[in-house]
Amino acid sequence: METILFFPSSTPVNLKPLHRKSPPLIPLTKPISSSSIKKPAFCSSSSSLPYSPRKDWFSCLQHGLAAASISIAMNFCPLPTTLNPVLASEFDVINVGPPKDSYVVDDAGVLSRVTKSDLKGLLSDLESRKNLHINFITVRKLTSKPDAFEYADQVLEKWYPTVEEGNNKGVVVLVTTQKEGAITGGPAFVQAVGENILDATVSENLPVLATEEKYNEAITSTAKRLVAAIDGLPDPGGPKFKENKRESNFKTKEETEEKRGQFTLVVGGLLVIAFVVPMAQYYAYVSKK
């Protein structure tokens, strides 16, 4: 026994027990609760702290409310137009304001790059010479105003709220879905163009070419006609509505009477043949006997 209990002197033995934190033992007489065995899967945590049902349920409730708030915000607060162009409308055109680097707001997305470049060159030259600024706007559909004229007035008042700012400004609106257009402007702009050219442009260039879905031509021809009027040049005119005469499929009275006579002759001949031929065959058969 002494040999077995002998320890070398080089290896000191620490007989003092180690101080370790261990969970208290659960008495065998106390029923084991399911909550003390396993945490809920949806509220599990990697922390080694003792599980607290009240704290975990409160944390889950906070996360749920945060997710619901984000979902509601995304549904009722659409992203800006630059990130989500599908949600763009006539309200965005009004709120954004007049373009700074161009003269065109193509919200409907129907104008080509060539058209926009031509308009910029033509209208910038006009502004440098006559001090008149014209903005062209295309929208797909109007929901806030009954027609393009009221919408054009609303844009002018919103973009240039004072008389001094909007005196030499003009606004041309083209609605692609409704196939209509409107022109409005300040006193100096209207006087420089003239009422006759304004009315003719609105009734000819914009609606006629928009009906044919020639939106680029509608905008460029309108711009050239307005610039010519401001410069005092002859009016180039505008397109006219094409009268498409459809050929009628109904017959006239004379054609009906003629066809009726021919039909009577044909039917009469068929009836004669139907009666005469059998009788002749019967007569020939009887005469042979």
UniProtKB/TrEMBL annotation:
Disordered, as annotated region: 235-255
Amino acid composition bias (Basic and acidic residues), ranges on this chain: 240-255
Every TPM domain range: 104-228
Record InterPro entries: TPM_dom
The entry's keywords: Membrane, Transmembrane, Transmembrane helix
Bilayer-crossing regions: 263-285
Pfam families listed in its UniProt record: TPM_phosphatase (PF04536)
Protein name from the UniProt record: UPF0603 protein
Organism of this sequence: Apostasia shenzhenica
